[in-house]
Amino acid sequence: MEQAPCISQIATLLADPKRTAMIWALMDGSAKPSEELAMLAGLSAPSANAHLARLAAGGLLRIEARGRKRFFRMAAADVGAAVDALASTTMASVARSAPCRPVAALLAPATLRQARLCHDHLGGEMAAALYQRMVLAKWIDHYEQRVYVTPLGARHLAGHGIFTQALAHQSYSTMACDCFDWSEQQPHLGGALGAGLLQLFMQSRWLKPISESSALQVTEAGRLEIARMAAL
What we know:
The chain is of the alpha+beta class. It has two domains: 8-75, Orthogonal Bundle (Arc Repressor Mutant, subunit A); 80-228, no CATH class. The protein is built from eleven helices and eleven strands. The chain has helices at 8-15, 17-24, 34-41, 45-57, 77-97, 110-114, 125-136, 151-159, 164-167, 191-203, 220-228; strands spanning 32-33, 61-66, 69-74, 116-118, 121-123, 140-143, 146-149, 177-181, 186-190, 207-209, 216-218. A three-stranded antiparallel sheet has the order 1-3-2. The protein has a two-stranded antiparallel ribbon with strand order 4-5. Strand 4 and strand 5 form a beta hairpin. The longest helix is centred in the middle third of the chain and has 21 residues, at 77-97. The termini are far apart.
């Protein structure tokens, strides 16, 4: 037990629904004044300031003074990554516990929903759409609940500079796997291939990071090129 990570402090800060609502509103990397965050969370100004002070003292938010107003934003990208992981786990666990009941998608800023970092691979609308295209184009297939790259997929991926044989030697437990997307309620691609695709998109400048956010900016070239990949 002594070697267990001390996560209770952060977990306590995130356990309050009002504090979570204010953090969720900042997931797109924006900075918002305390008055706006109070309104979004349904709090009075004094109550919101007390919650925001706790989040800032806990290292989750950063305060920026702009004249007489105080603006709040994510303290670092790892905060957004942690909240994103919690959102994904929450939605996946709800789906597992009640598989026959439809799960309402989480409301999120448009930039976060379109494209975002999910661990070391791409998540969001673009990732879920690419996954479906790869399945329909028979680049990837499923066998006994496992995802594998087909010979056809390996050839097409090589044309994009992604060589599955090289990825197989990297320190990943699997070449490809399903990762549940909390905003789209369907899978996107994880594993070594998911990470390799994200690296390609970033190096090609089709996607760009947004400071202190897991959201990714999609360039016009990226919108076109990623939509073409695996298109029938």
